[in-house]
Amino acid sequence: MIPEIVPPPPPGGVGAAAAAAAARDLSASPTSSRSVTETVNGSHRFVIQGYSLAKGMGVGKHIASDNFTVGGYQWAIYFYPDGKNPEDNSAYVSVFIALASEGTDVRALFELTLLDQSGKGKHKVHSHFDRSLESGPYTLKYRGSMWGYKRFFRRTALETSDFLKDDCLKINCTVGVVVSATDYSRPHSIQVPDSDIGLHFGMLLENQEGSDIVFNVAGEKFHAHKLVLAARSPIFRAEFFEGLNDEKDEITIPDMEPEVFKAMLHFIYRDTLVDDYVLAASSSVSSISDTLAAKLLAAADKYDLGRLRLLCESYLCKDISVNSVASTLALADRHHAMELKAVCLKFAAENLSAVIRSDGFEFLKENCPSLQSELLRTVAGCEEECSSGGKSQSVWAQLSDGGDTSGRRVRARI
């Protein structure tokens, strides 16, 4: 047994020794750290409309999705209708995920899902997730590196399967970028939860407690609070405290549907859009302007709710296509949605040949000549970008190339 050396007690006796020992204990509080490696996940859906027309473009040639961002990197899905491998003689379609931005040794997990469009849920899934990988995540060395399958699906089987419907394929891609971080623990810490003010104000709306104003919207009554509405909307503030309605306890809204007014109140109290499934329920209507998101955009413009307007713009932006861009552009211009308008103009300029063949473009010609002029200026800007090397093809040259007139932008690449 190794003898222990006991230091003499400090001057002052046993009490002082105990105090010194306590001081040593405090100064030597243990510290710790933890390395956490996890994935930052994101997904993208690539809709390939006009599959039969894409065939025959040649082995090794592909059409690409728009770039999407996951984990700080940009990615794209490449679909090869005639396959990537010359040895297969176009017997298979190929699908790959490509790193579309600058990066070195980017480690990631991937999942490719070909959607079963019969409703049976029998999707074709190739996934790195939820299974052990002997060599760890896949490493992409540089921009343009790809992961995928040269023999993703035999073409003859694909063309008679439930994956192909109305000449359309749908591919879901999930990317999980591997990131590592060191977590330094502190001896004492207090977790502060996220703000729940929206939840509390939402309960105030639902319970109607203390409400002092009633809105009559097409016969349906909505109870609310003047102070809350005035704090959120300068239009309500002027109406309640600067106008003739400051003493009224009921106001009729003549030009809005109850569903739209209810969704607007949801935002005013909770600072969020209504659930996606509520917005999506109206997406099947033939006209963009008849969707709930479009009507809510109009309400945001009427009551000067800037954040609600931007939320609606962001939602409507997701569904811009060749067939919808003209009507969406007119909607954005009508309700001062400048971010959405800029996106529509750029999309229309980049897909000009297809857009001018759409019914919506005829509507623009007849009803919105000023927007046509703005579109021409945007096209001119794209031409300047092209001449400086920013694009591979002149926008005006698209007029002789034809284009996809039935859905989202589809770009052929070699």
Features of the shown structure:
414 residues, MATH/TRAF_dom, single chain, BTB/POZ and MATH domain-containing protein 4-like isoform X1, 35% helix, Apoptosis, Tumor Necrosis Factor Receptor Associated Protein 2, Chain A, Serine Threonine Protein Phosphatase 5, Tetratricopeptide repeat, Potassium Channel Kv1.1, Chain A, BPM1-6, alpha+beta, BACK_BPM_SPOP, disordered C terminus
Kindly describe this structure.
The structure is a single chain. The chain has three domains: 35-182, Apoptosis, Tumor Necrosis Factor Receptor Associated Protein 2, Chain A; 195-315, Potassium Channel Kv1.1, Chain A; 320-408, Serine Threonine Protein Phosphatase 5, Tetratricopeptide repeat (Alpha Horseshoe), CATH 1.25.40. The protein is built from 15 helices and 14 strands. It has 414 residues and is of the alpha+beta class. A hairpin with a 2-residue loop joins strand 3 (68-70) and strand 4.
- Report on the biggest sheet: 6 strands, antiparallel
Tally of discrete structural domains = 3
Which bin fits the share of residues in helices? Answer: 25-40%
* Beta strands, count: 14
The structural class is: alpha+beta
N-to-C span: 78 Å
Q: Give the low-confidence spans.
A: 1-7, 386-414
| Average pLDDT figure | 83
Note the beta-strand portion: 15-25%
CATH superfamily of the largest domain: Apoptosis, Tumor Necrosis Factor Receptor Associated Protein 2, Chain A
Order of helices and strands: HEHEEEEEEEEHEHEEHHEHHHHHHHHHE
The level 1 CATH classification of the largest domain is Mainly Beta
Reported by name, the CATH topology of the largest domain is Apoptosis, Tumor Necrosis Factor Receptor Associated Protein 2, Chain A
Compute the number of helices: 15
CATH architecture of the largest domain: Sandwich
